[in-house]
Specification:
Structural class: mainly alpha
Shape: elongated
Number of strands: 0
Largest sheet: none
Order of helices and strands: HHH
């Protein structure tokens, strides 16, 4: 029987494989959110538009990474 630490380590490795480029997607989202908040605080509509563009790039990046790495058969939801 594997120890708890080994099971957690294995789960983290499996999650990393199922979510490629997750760290970069989080960074892009964070940058877009910060730009948007700063733009709203400063009253600069152009900065808010830049933030929307950065968030759009993050969405496109997510869709492209999902397309290039389809879910494995084990990851599919059960059909009941």
């Amino acid at each position: 029987m594997p120890r708890w630490g080994e099971a957690v380590s294995r789960a983290i490795e499996e999650a990393a494989v199922s979510a490629p480029h997750l760290e970069w997607r989080i960074r892009i989202f964070g940058a877009g959110a910060i730009l948007g908040l700063v733009g709203m605080w400063a009253g600069a509509p152009w900065l808010v538009n830049v933030a929307i563009g950065v968030l759009g790039i993050g969405v496109v990046f997510r869709l492209l990474s999902r397309r290039s790495h389809p879910p494995a058969e084990d990851d599919e939801a059960p059909t009941a």
